[in-house]
Amino acid sequence: MKRILIFFFLLPLFAKSQQHFFSSVKVEYEKTIYIHQLAKEIDQEWYDWIKDKMPAANISYFDMVADTSQSLFKPGRELPGKKQGFMDISETKNQVYTNFKTGKVNSLKPVFEETFQVEDSLARIKWKLTADTRVIAGFECRKAVGILDDSVGVFAFYTDEIMVPGGPESIHGLPGLILGMGIPRLHATWFATKVEVNGVNLSAVKAPVGKGKKTNKVELHQQLDKVLRNWGNYGGKMVVNFII
């Protein structure tokens, strides 16, 4: 009986020791914007106009390559036959380089007719871990809820098997890679569809190069406020969309 009790006591420790941990990764994320929900929240007349003219959701893809010190998040594959719609003019072209060691983020962000080179520190995100779990792309993930810059709610599912403290866009700060994420205010989610952890090529992980106006997040926020202040509720959501 004593041996049986010892066996069951050691079993969880043995299982944990068999868990694999990875320090580099390539991920494909599927981003979904729930257009009908977003439109209905902003303006009922707008929703009535678009509900039969636009799909309920807009899907786009992003790739992220990363290790424990840095990551690059950029546009991925195009959907065959997809027509560019009103909701994906700018947000599907973001390129975001994050250096976890220096705490800096370099981004190329197309905003309507202009492109901005945004250099700033990692965003402030207050996280609270929960007991909820789900499997994403074959990895068991734990749910966390957070507040971005003291104002924007976000939920995320991360796996501690991949030791990269980042995720889609510039979201970061959890003890493992974020494989699923949502920002309710934007009616948008990002979920991993493919994950590669072996033989990952990190040579392209560097700050994006391109022409654009150099700025930081505060200055970009101020410029967007000037342009979008008369757009009502939708304008406020677009500001959040461009600065995450």
UniProtKB/TrEMBL annotation:
<keyword id="KW-0732">Signal</keyword>
<dbReference type="InterPro" id="IPR005901">
    <property type="entry name" value="GLPGLI"/>
</dbReference>
<protein>
    <submittedName>
        <fullName>GLPGLI family protein</fullName>
    </submittedName>
</protein>
<dbReference type="Pfam" id="PF22252">
    <property type="entry name" value="PNGase_F-II_N"/>
</dbReference>
<feature type="signal peptide">
    <location>
        <begin position="1"/>
        <end position="17"/>
    </location>
</feature>
